[in-house]
Amino acid sequence: MTESLSPERMAAWRAYIEASQRLFTQLEDDLRAASELSFADYHVLVLLSEAPGQRLRMGELASRLVFSPSRLTYQISTMQRRGLVARESCPGDRRGSEAVLTATGLLALREAAPHHLASVRHHLMDDLDDAEVACLTRVFTRLGTRLRAARDASTTARQE
Questions:
Q1: Per-residue pLDDT tens for 117-156?
Q2: Cβ atoms of residues 128 and 11 within 8 Å
Q3: For a tag site, which of 19, 42, 67, 71 has the least CB within 10 Å?
Q4: Residue partners of 136: CB distance under 8 A and separation at least 6
Q5: Which pLDDT score is estimated for 85?
Q6: Could you tell me if 65 and 47 are in contact, meaning their C-beta atoms sit under 8 angstroms apart?
């Protein structure tokens, strides 16, 4: 059974969506201008840089990015052509493949990260009003809490 939102919550939700869309459009534009990376490129590179051996199975990468397999395949193919990532067969599983961070990809990430951080700070401070910042902060805090809980649960399940 779904619960309908009150007019106040609906207005708050709409304000969040509009503010986040505007913010992410501006951040994407800044990131592309500074490093020629899209947000999707940037997130793929971040996840690979944090992964053991700087490689992840394509399925795990897709689930972490909430990408469909076809969207991820397209993303990795375009990044491969630019030399940012490579795709290799998984050892012991000929059906699977892994995305691997290249030296060029790592360099691109290192160069983009300071610009991205500065852009986030700039837009959060200058382009959003206090209510929008508060709304985004609440949503990101809740999301972070949920993601940490899910990660901790999966880590505990793997250890058992």
A1: 888 777 776 766 777 777 767 766 776 677 677 767 766 7
A2: no
A3: 71
A4: 16, 19, 20, 23, 124, 128
A5: 96
A6: yes
Both structure tokens of 54: 């700087």
Does pLDDT of 1 surpass 50?
A: no
Whether 42 and 112 have beta carbons less than 8 Å apart is answered as: yes
CB 76 within 8 A of CB 58: yes
Enumerate residues 6+ apart whose C-beta is below 8 A from 36: none
Tokens of 14: 């709409």
- Are the C-beta atoms of residues 93 and 132 closer than 8 Å to each other? no
Q: Which helix (H) or strand (E) holds 103?
A: helix 103-126
Q: In angstroms, how far is CA 29 from the centroid of its own chain? A: 16
Stronger pLDDT, 154 or 64, i.e. the higher one: 64
Residue 41 buriedness (CB in 10 A; 0-12 / 13-18 / 19+)? buried
Which two three-digit tokens encode residue 65? 């990015």
Other CB atoms within 10 A of residue 76 CB: 21
97 and 90 in contact (C-beta within 8 Å)? yes
